[in-house]
Amino acid sequence: MAYNPQVVDAKIVSHNPKNGLFEIVAQLKDRTVCRLIYGTDATGTLQPTHINRLLKEPCPICRKDFLCNCMSKFKGTISEQALEIAGNPS
């Protein structure tokens, strides 16, 4: 069975208007909580630069209870859903 992340809640937790960086904490349907860090590239396009799984639940993919990089494969999908819920800070 393939993993299909679904964001149910997302909040902007920090925003730096000087350099355009901001963070969103997203809660997924399977109770996993992730922190997404956004930045802008040279053209000014908003892009997710990092994703971290907050260690409240084991990883839903590999079931490890410590740091892993499994969520980086789904960074784009989670990012799109989180931006729809939380919006883009102005």
How would you write the strand order of the largest sheet? Answer: 1-2-3-4
- SS strand fraction: 35-45%
Span between N and C termini?
Answer: 39 Å
Shape descriptor reads: elongated
The description of the largest β-sheet is: 4 strands, antiparallel
What fraction, in percent, of the residue positions are helical? 10-25%
**Order of secondary-structure elements:** EEEEH
List the uncertain runs: none
What's the rounded overall pLDDT mean? 91
Radius of gyration: 13 Å
Domain module tally: 1
Number of helices: 1
Q: How many strands appear in the DSSP assignment? A: 4
Structural class: mainly beta
Describe this protein's structure:
With 90 residues, the protein is mostly beta strands. The termini are far apart. Helices cover 13% and strands 39% of the residues. The mean pLDDT is 91. The radius of gyration is 13 Å and the shape is elongated. The chain has one domain.
